[in-house]
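Pilot study result, target chain (299 residues):
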Amino acid sequence: MSAHGPGARESSLKLALAFCIIDLALMGTVAFNSNSVTILGDVLKEGTDTLAVLAAFLTVRAVRRSPNHRFAYGIGKLENLVSIGIGGMMVLAALYITAHAAQHLQKPLQPEGTLPGVILFGIYAVISFVIWMRTRAAARSQPSAIMQSQAKLWFAKGSFDTLMGAGLLVALFFRADEWAWYIDPIASLVGVCFLLHAAWGMTSSSVPDLLDAAVEETVQIQIMRGLVQHIDAYERILKVRSRRSGPHVYVEIFLEFEPELRMREVQSRIEAIRADLEERVASTQVLICPASPTASLIS
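Predicted structure:
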């Protein structure tokens, strides 16, 4: 399925979920036979990643349902809430990894059983970056808070796996030297920085939509360009309001028309403008209201 098709989000999340489950099982086996805090931290991180991807998949399926009488605008904001929850889980994982790394820094141990971990980290780093590119493409084709958070998660995961694998490889080569015993916990602490950065990116990008902030500037520019193209169809623009709910954008436009126009002509012009704007911006629903300057002052 194309990364730009209508089911791209679900397809990307299915692939990511399958990878997470396999990764969790294999890394759990390696951690059982190793004393590496980096590998242990990765198992914990994989657990939160698996739960996060599963929650994202179920949320996307739920958001896809048609609006009902109770949620007339759909439940798109559920994506933002889940994204914030994912960020919270990543923070908890980061704190747990930090606590274990601190213990190993106080009492360093010679890493054992890390070679399988190094191999898996290398393989998973490549796969993670592939999933990141696929998820990013899906998020660009159909803007979505949850897909954007997933893209951040997989980029952080790929970077984390690359760094952890490199750190374990160096520690493995110099395992006879005591100074190399500190590489394992230090590498896990650096990996914590990636987790916290990704968690911050998820939450900071999700909160504005919960507060009904206006859509991003690029979308607003497309809307204004469309209105300029139809400038002869109305007298002036009184107000433009926009908001995002999940992958959907809702735009309300208040236009003043010539008083002598019949309602049939006004409606015809409204339909032409609406169709053009919805074609310019994907997943957009446009509502155009004829209004007077006095009415436009009402919030």
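One observation from the pilot: The chain has a mean pLDDT of 77. A full batch analysis is planned for the follow-on phase.
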